[in-house]
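Exam revision sheet. Question 4 asks you to relate a sequence to its structure. Input first:
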Amino acid sequence: MTTDSRPTGEVPEPPTRPRLTREYLATAALALIDAHGLRKFSMRKLGTAVGFDPMAFYRHYDDQEALFDGVAEAMFDEIDVDTLPWDGTWQELAREYCLRLRDTLLRHPHAVQVFATRPVRSPAAIDAGVKMLSKLQADGIPPAQALRLTRCLREFTVGHALAIAVTKLGAERRSRKPEPGSPDYNLLAEAADATTLDDHFEPGLTALLEGFAHPTS
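Answer key, structure tokens:
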């Protein structure tokens, strides 16, 4: 996979040939969402940004929801699953996948909702899923249990990223946590001041992996 060196939110240059591609449209849409937020995105604004009639997009995507499917696929591609530690243990593989997924989502906080609300069904995602289940099966985990495991890890990671993104995009400003020294400053507020916004992710991930590695039943 070629590393994209563009700053987040910068629309890529149009294809050199006078036509659009599915991949280009998805990447350009993601850049607009990064720059202006999901609520302000529209097909018309995308057309203006890339210099094409918005009606041309419908040759590639049935509607905006289908385009958002493409955006989620573009985000998945950033994980670069081909370079995951496939030769390591399944725990090492799963951990690295989750870390990359979290980092990818947090590079695109405005688009986390897009990724979180649709399954990614691109050939690359399906191939990675099959390869992941095959890896776990080779380590003695039946496919159905392996699927439960990977679903739990994905939901934990996406949910974490969604919570962090929402906080960074404004929810933190609405916090009513009392300040140290105030009459309302309690144990919960003290504990919150002793933590960071995302320092619970890796301990939680470790607990999940260890739980699946040593099931109680």
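Marking note for examiners. The chain has two domains: 22-77, 81-213.
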